[in-house]
Design goal:
Number of domains: 1
Shape: globular
Strand content: under 5%
Length: 193
């Protein structure tokens, strides 16, 4: 197996690992107010998240940025809680400012999530001569993994909202409330306290 394929698969596995479900929760929080027909907006959101975490992942892996891991482990669920709470306050995408806020959340909070990935990736890279190709492959793997999460979530949402008849606003509120509660529990469980 080539180096690119190895790191690509590691990126997919890392994002889909249920032990690290914080990233899954964030992606779900980003998608909670959308339905399947909004797929272009969702792809832009997930890509903005990938761009954000790719920047800090690269900077942290190159040791240009260093932040206490306890802070990062606390801030990741904070980003999830803020995104979910924003959905609770406005459970449907608006035609203007609301969408821009979600894109901001995806990009800015992606920067924080990238710091969480960095220790994992740095330990994998070891003494690689060049980190560009492994970093690119890992980030592309993360993006594909996130799109898998989005696809599963949107199919479930499509079935429940589109076929079963669950109210779209109620769906967004329920999902966002559950994610918010889980994020608060994660914040409480961190070593930060």
């Amino acid at each position: 197996m080539g180096q690119f394929q190895l790191y690509f698969q590691l990126g997919i596995q890392h994002i889909l690992d249920l032990k690290g479900f914080d990233h899954i929760l964030f992606v779900v929080a980003l998608c909670a107010i959308y339905v399947l027909r909004d797929w272009k907006k969702i792809i832009i959101l997930v890509t903005a998240f990938t761009i954000g975490h790719s920047i800090t992942l690269a900077l942290a892996t190159l040791k240009l940025v260093s932040i206490n891991s306890d802070w990062v482990e606390f801030l990741i669920p904070v980003t999830i809680a803020i995104t979910a709470f924003s959905n609770i306050l406005s459970p449907k995408p608006s035609s203007g400012r609301g969408i821009q806020v979600n894109y901001f959340f995806a990009l800015f909070f992606g920067l924080i999530h990238g710091l969480g990935f960095s220790n994992y990736l740095r330990s994998l890279l070891g003494k690689e001569a060049s980190i560009f190709q492994p970093l690119l492959a890992f980030n592309l793997g993360l993006e594909v993994g996130q799109l898998v999460i989005v696809a599963i979530f949107m199919v479930v949402a499509g079935i429940l909202v589109g076929i079963v008849g669950v109210n779209k606003k109620d769906w967004a509120l329920i999902i966002s409330s559950v994610v918010f509660g889980m994020a608060v529990m994660m914040m409480i469980d961190t070593k930060f306290w």
